[in-house]
């Protein structure tokens, strides 16, 4: 069964550093997403991406966040200057005819 | 803004009992509704997708119903097993973004 792959599974970074989270969506899907889940809270929408541009973004997705599809397979989320409150599980997802498929997530810890 | 509520927040049942998990949402203008399973510290595994034109969907011991007009979905798990212990998340798809509930945390006692 096709999977969404995320790397790394865990990342620890110092406050103020830049991080890049990587994802390989399912190849024939057209819509890609990033969601995050702060410990003990709901999964929250960050951004959707279609046809090489942002389709929609939430109020969380401010100027410190950016997304990119640098080639035909990878989809990245960059956080420019991390804050303590960015610590969360970040999930990549892609959407097909059978709904959304999520990756296993990257646990980001900002210290 | 779509708000999704799941009741009960947590429940424990003895093995073999049927599980009934409830999800309600405030905006009935949805495309699909999807149920996921999440194990502690892990990703989201899709269980069932109900399209807005459907009333229910079944997969093995799982059955999910959807009543758009009243803003409700119910996930039934028949003959629960200890391996069903997890958090079950309801997610409502409204125009290319999912709104999640906080989940139903289930423990099945052997």
Question: What does this entry show, briefly?
Answer:
Chain A is mostly beta strands.
Rounded to the nearest angstrom, the distance between the terminal CA atoms of chain A is 37 Å
Which whole number gives the mean pLDDT of chain A? 94
> What amount of the residues of chain A lies in strands?
over 45%
* Unreliable runs of chain A: none
Mean pLDDT of chain B: 95
N to C succession of SSEs of chain B:
EEEEEEEEEEE
Helix content of chain B: under 10%
Helical proportion of chain A, percent range: under 10%
Largest interface by Cβ-Cβ < 8 Å: A-B, 25 and 21 residues
Shape of chain B: globular
Briefly note the structural class of the backbone of chain B: mainly beta
The amount of beta strand of chain B, in percent, is over 45%
Features:
heterodimer, A: 111 residues, mainly beta, seven-stranded mixed beta sheet, four-stranded antiparallel beta sheet, 11 strands, 0% helix, globular, B: 110 residues, six-stranded mixed beta sheet, 58% strand
What does this structure look like?
The complex is a heterodimer of chains A (111) and B (110). Chain A is mainly β and 111 residues long. Chain A has strands spanning 5-7, 10-13, 19-24, 31-37, 43-50, 53-57, 65-68, 75-79, 88-96, 99-102, 106-110. In chain A, strands 2, 4, 5, 6, 9, 10 and 11 form a 7-stranded mixed β-sheet that branches. In chain A, strand 9 and strand 10 form a beta hairpin. Chain A is globular, with a radius of gyration of 13 Å. The model of chain A has no long low-confidence stretch (mean pLDDT 94). Chain B is mainly beta and 110 residues long. Chain B is built from no helices and 11 strands. In chain B, strands 2, 4, 5, 9, 10 and 11 form a 6-stranded mixed β-sheet that branches. Chain B has a 5-stranded antiparallel β-sheet with strand order 1-3-8-7-6, with no helix packed on it. The termini of chain B are far apart. The interface between A and B is medium-sized, with 25 and 21 residues.
């Amino acid at each position: 069964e096709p999977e969404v792959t995320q790397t790394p599974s865990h990342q620890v970074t110092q406050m103020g550093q830049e991080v890049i989270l990587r994802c390989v969506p399912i190849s024939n899907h057209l819509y890609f997403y990033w969601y995050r889940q702060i410990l003990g809270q709901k999964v929250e929408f960050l951004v959707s991406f279609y046809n090489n541009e942002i389709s929609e973004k939430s109020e969380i997705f401010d100027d410190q966040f950016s997304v990119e599809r640098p080639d035909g397979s990878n989809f990245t989320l960059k956080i420019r200057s991390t804050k303590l409150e960015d610590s969360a599980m970040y999930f990549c997802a892609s959407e097909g005819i059978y709904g959304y498929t999520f990756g296993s997530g990257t646990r980001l810890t900002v210290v | 803004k779509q708000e999704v509520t799941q009741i009960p927040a947590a429940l424990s049942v003895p093995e073999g009992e049927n599980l009934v998990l409830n999800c309600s949402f405030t905006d009935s203008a949805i495309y699909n509704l999807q149920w996921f399973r999440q194990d502690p510290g892990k990703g989201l595994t899709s269980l069932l997708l109900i399209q807005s034109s459907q009333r229910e969907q079944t997969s093995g011991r799982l059955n999910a119903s959807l009543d758009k007009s009243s803003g409700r979905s119910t996930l039934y798990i028949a003959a629960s097993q200890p391996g069903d212990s997890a958090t079950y998340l309801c997610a409502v798809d409204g125009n290319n973004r999912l709104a999640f509930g906080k989940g139903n945390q289930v423990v099945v006692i052997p």
